[in-house]
TrEMBL record, chain A:
Gene Ontology molecular function, alphabetical: oxidoreductase activity, acting on the aldehyde or oxo group of donors
Residue stretches making up the Pyruvate flavodoxin/ferredoxin oxidoreductase pyrimidine binding domain: 262-458
Alphabetic keyword roster: Oxidoreductase
Protein's name in the database: 2-oxoglutarate ferredoxin oxidoreductase subunit alpha
Domain Pyruvate:ferredoxin oxidoreductase core: 515-577
Lineage: Bacteria, Pseudomonadati, Pseudomonadota, Candidatus Lambdaproteobacteria
Entry's transmembrane regions: none
Domain Pyruvate/ketoisovalerate oxidoreductase catalytic: 22-212
Automatic annotation (TrEMBL), chain B:
Superkingdom, taxonomy of origin: Bacteria
Database matches in Gene3D superfamilies: 3.40.50.970
Family matches, as SUPFAM superfamilies: Thiamin diphosphate-binding fold (THDP-binding)
InterPro entries the record matches: 2-oxoacid:Fd_oxidoreductase, THDP-binding, TPP_enzyme_TPP-bd
A GO MF term: thiamine pyrophosphate binding
CDD domains: TPP_OGFOR
Domain Thiamine pyrophosphate enzyme TPP-binding: 53-200
The name this protein goes by in its record: 2-oxoacid:ferredoxin oxidoreductase subunit beta
Organism name: Candidatus Lambdaproteobacteria bacterium RIFOXYD2_FULL_56_26
GO terms classed as biological process: cellular respiration; small molecule metabolic process
Entry keyword set: Oxidoreductase
Presence of the UniProt keyword Oxidoreductase in the record: yes
Length: 613, 336
């Protein structure tokens, strides 16, 4: 602790790092996240990077951002508005200053505010971006980060450019000091990462230390802050992004099913890191095939499912559009297949690096013919792990493709994941049919309506299946009208029957009903939950219900909806779940929609809900 | 081949009617596949037949094996997954020229390039049959069809040249009216480890009847040449013609008029793809004969075997994956 600085306790803090996409903002943010988590804080993060890998340096288009919220309680989201903005150049300040909370402060690298940098950020000639008029009167701490870093590394024999690169560690040092967080984790990371480049390790280590010293001694900061530990459920934790969690969930599901995992895929933002995660686990004998296109990705997965693997394919909305025909094939073949859609901003190529929930109708109906496929959705990054297992469970038990919806916000965002005891994960053991006696390929289990899974190669059970309509028992091609009617209904009944096998829709709040119920699905959970908690703390009758299973809906859905006077459906699209609920239950609902490529803020929920109270 | 196979052709014939048009070349292909596979000594259940959409793609229904009738153009992608998931399965794909080379062209390219262990029968009738008579990627320029009433204005794709350019490890052509030759190609494909690309010229009696008559009816000897490993390339009614080199192209000459040393000798197993590429020009155009046989067969590791090898290496290095250990790995912290 420093005697001269005032020490203040805070419940939670939101920090946004912003710089050129080459400035290492993602790395800096991730390092701070790990250290805060080790410190005992709950942390949720969200990177925000440009669609171009290296857009012109110094421009607004080239800004890469990373936001995190850490607190002494469940923080649920990466936060709506930053308390602290780290802006490594004028463009970053210009693009983000409006989001900074009025009581917050920005730290900028003064050295980047030269004539050239200011011009690139698009300010008019002669403008000083640090004038209150341009900082909207908000507090800006201008620190010569680059030159301080250079001075700190003066004695090291390395190129100027390499020294400059260390400025993000200097910045990190400033933050570690300001938030009284130990730098040990990062120091350790530097030593491992640059084990083969000792000079780089030394430079980064030095920059980090000098940053801490600078924060203490420069006189620019008046306070040091402390955020206490959060009371999380006891256990061992690690930080996971949603895509990492999805990949690990698939690996875990295959282990629990006693099957080999097969992922057929094609790179697409923001879903690719699932393929990367799975491909890293060859020691589990996983097959992670990067195919020639989206269609091949799902088709090879269908072939693997037929051959007896736990098969999956992952993509984002445009990829789902391409996979549509093959999804119908998997559905009519009645083979297990997990289809992950990490949704992004649409339509068409849309906003590849931004988030949205606008593929729900596509998941429900985006195929030719009557093609019912269960649809489930994860509500937070760590929840992606559970939902990947749940998708696998439903696929294997009901012999059906299952669509798991996540989104860019979940996929790239990270939070604390409580590491489970693997023996407590669901048992997904499957039984292949091996007895030829009386086998009929489309005979159904009386309880689940699932047909049996036969591995090609099994003696005595050779059979042919395909995308043509088939006889309800033998599976032979059939054009019989009554048989077709029967099969279309049987496939739908099978999927609808899943409602008997999933958890009820839970009310968070007034169990017996009340004034307002805010409904959501997927990644809006955290934002809605924070807002609902705030309303409830203020004594308002506002409750929450969040769908993880959308098709079929939980059995008690109508019962829950009927308990509330007003139902608000909040989603990042133009009201897709809203339409589904109205169609299914013929009830009145109020859509709360946002479609800006960004998650909901609490204020945006408030604007609609306050009017209803 | 197993001389004492316990199976007969009948074991490979399922119950149920074959629904191709009377006189369709597909019947002949089917009969030879059934015959050849019954001689391998492997049970019908050891084989998986996968297809897309088209007349030829009904093939899996007519084999008493495991079968998957998929969607248009995607058979090779489905087959790739099945083969990687279970390399013990012997995977055959039946595809047409539209299915395999138009809508499925991308998968064709990559399956050949990857050398996946799939036996691919390309049943090439140079027409769309199931949709009733539109031109296909192998239709000749100027061919009149319902969708090109004045004739097509595009050149055909040659699957032999294409496959060779992709590094194909087994590239062959045969035809439905030469059952013995077909059987030999299927046998060789059965024994091949990587991707076996077999173009079978197949007559569509309804929409493109006689498309291959020059090369399979009376007088065909004048226009066809069989590729036989190690032999001089000689053809003609009286074996009077031969193939010699003229620059980078083959040229037809009279045996009597050339030095015997200048007659091209076929080498199926040449490591260098040059000869096969040269011979691929013998596709019945530019006054050259149509060549049948194996243009090229080389030994190269199959995709699924390479994948297997890497996974085995990973297991050998890290030990078999342990889920709890995996979840516990990386930066963790404990809350008590």
């Amino acid at each position: 602790m420093n005697d001269q600085l005032q020490l203040k306790d805070l419940d939670k803090v939101v920090i946004r790092f912003s710089g050129d996409s080459g400035d290492g903002m993602q790395l800096t943010g991730n390092q701070f996240t790990s250290s805060a988590a080790h410190h005992g804080n709950d942390v949720v993060t969200l990177p925000d990077f440009p669609a171009e890998i290296r857009a012109p340096a110094g421009t607004i288009a080239g800004i890469s951002g990373f936001q995190l919220q850490f607190g002494n309680q469940r923080v649920n989201t990466p936060g709506d508005f930053p308390d602290v903005l780290i802006a490594m150049n004028p463009a970053s300040l210009r693009a983000n200053i409006k989001d900074l909370r009025p009581a917050g402060f920005a730290i900028v690298d003064l050295d980047a505010f030269d004539e050239r940098g200011i011009k690139k950020a698009g300010y008019a000639d002669g403008v000083n971006p640090l004038d209150p008029e341009h900082t909207l009167g908000k507090k800006v701490i201008a620190a010569p980060i680059t030159s301080q870093t250079m001075a700190a590394l003066e004695s090291l024999d390395m190129p100027k450019k390499d020294k400059e690169r260390c400025k993000n560690f200097f910045t990190l040092g400033v933050l570690y000091f300001l938030y009284d967080t130990s730098p040990d984790l990062t120091l350790n990371w530097i030593n491992v990462k640059f084990a083969k480049k000792p000079l780089v390790a030394e430079a980064n280590t030095k920059a980090l230390h000098e940053g801490m010293i600078y924060a203490r001694n420069s006189g620019l900061f008046q306070s040091q802050y402390r955020v206490g530990s959060a009371k999380l459920r006891p256990g061992t934790y690690k930080s996971l992004t949603g895509n990492e969690a999805t990949g690990l969930g698939l690996v875990a599901a295959a282990e629990r099913a006693g099957l080999k995992l097969f992922l057929g895929s094609y790179p697409i933002t923001p879903a690719t890191t699932i393929l990367e995660e799975v491909a890293a686990h060859k020691d589990f004998d996983v097959k992670a095939l990067q195919m020639e296109d989206e269609i091949a990705g799902i088709c090879c997965a269908i072939g693997a499912a037929w051959a007896g693997n736990l098969a999956a394919t992952n993509t984002s909305g445009p990829g789902i559009a391409l996979k549509g025909e093959a999804m119908g094939l998997a559905m009519i073949l009645e083979l297990p297949l997990v289809i992950v859609n990490v949704q992004r901003g649409g339509p068409s190529t849309g906003l590849p690096t931004k988030t949205e929930q606008s593929d729900l109708m596509q998941a429900m109906y985006g195929r030719n013919g009557e093609s019912p496929i269960p649809v489930i959705a994860a509500k937070s990054p760590a929840h992606c792990f559970d939902m990947a297992i749940e998708a696998s469970r439903l696929a294997l038990k009901y012999m059906t493709p299952v669509i798991l919806l996540t989104d860019g916000y979940l996929g790239n965002g990270a939070e604390a994941f409580r590491i489970p005891d693997v023996n407590e994960l669901p048992d997904l053991t499957v039984k292949f049919r091996t007895n030829p006696e009386g086998y009929q390929s489309y005979a159904r289990d009386p309880k689940t309506n699932a047909r049996q899974w036969v591995k090609p190669g099994t003696p005595g059970l050779a059979n042919r299946i395909g995308g043509l309509e088939k006889d309800k028992l033998t599976g032979a091609v059939s054009h019989d009208p009554e048989n077709h009617d029967h099969m279309v209904r049987a496939r739908r009944e099978k999927v609808e029957g899943i409602a008997n096998d999933i958890a009820d829709l839970e009310i968070i709040g007034d169990q017996k009903g009340g004034d307002i119920l805010i409904i959501g699905w997927g990644s809006t959970y955290g934002a809605i939950n924070n807002k609902v908690n705030r309303y409830r703390a203020a004594g308002k009758s506002v409750s929450q219900a969040h769908f993880t299973h959308i098709f079929p809906f939980p059995k008690n859905t109508l019962e829950v909806l009927k308990k509330f006077k007003k139902i608000v459906v909040a989603e990042m699209n133009l009201g897709q779940l809203n339409s589904l609920l109205r169609a299914e239950y013929a009830i009145d609902t109020i859509p709360l929609t946002k479609i800006q490529g960004k998650p909901f803020t609490e204020d945006e929920i408030e604007v609609v809900v306050d009017k209803l109270l | 081949m197993n001389a004492e196979s316990q199976f007969t052709k009948k074991d490979f014939v399922p119950t149920g009617e074959v629904k191709w048009c009377a006189g369709c070349g597909d019947f002949s292909i089917l009969a030879q596949v059934q015959k050849v596979l019954s001689e391998t000594g492997k049970s019908p259940e050891s084989f998986a037949f996968i297809s897309g959409i088209g007349c030829s793609s009904r093939f899996p229904y007519y084999m008493n094996c495991y079968g998957l009738h998929g969607i248009h153009g995607r058979a090779l992608a489905i087959a790739t997954g099945a083969k990687v998931a279970n390399p013990a399965l012997e995977v055959w794909v039946a595809m047409g020229d539209g299915d395999g080379l138009a809508i499925g062209g991308n998968h064709f390219v990559h399956a050949v390039r990857r050398n996946v262990g799939i036996k691919g029968i390309l049943m090439d009738n140079r027409i769309y049959g199931l949709t009733k008579g539109q031109f296909s990627p192998t239709s000749f320029r100027g061919q009149k069809t319902k969708t090109a009433p004045m004739g097509t204005v595009e050149d055909p794709l040659d699957p032999i040249s294409l496959s060779l350019s992709l590094g194909g490890t087994f590239v062959a052509r045969t035809q439905d009216r030469d059952p013995k030759h077909m059987a030999e190609i299927f046998r060789r494909a059965h024994e091949h480890e990587g991707f076996a690309m077999m173009q079978v010229l197949q007559n569509c009696v309804i929409f493109n009847d006689g498309a291959f008559d020059d090369w399979c009816t009376k007088g065909k000897e004048e226009h066809t040449i069989k590729l036989v490993h190690g032999e001089k390339m000689i053809f003609g009614m009286e074996n009077e013609k031969c193939i010699i080199r003229q620059g980078f192209s083959p040229k037809v000459a009279l045996v009597a008029e050339v030095d015997a040393n200048n007659i091209v000798i076929h080498d199926e197993f040449a490591a260098d793809p040059g000869l096969a590429g040269f011979l691929a020009q013998l596709n019945g155009t530019h006054g050259l004969p149509m060549a049948y046989g194996i243009f090229r067969q080389i030994k190269a590791p199959a995709y699924e075997a390479e994948y297997r090898r890497q996974n085995d290496e990973a297991v050998a290095k890290k030990g078999p994956g342990n889920l709890q250990k995996l979840l516990n790995s990386g930066e963790t912290w404990t809350v008590s």
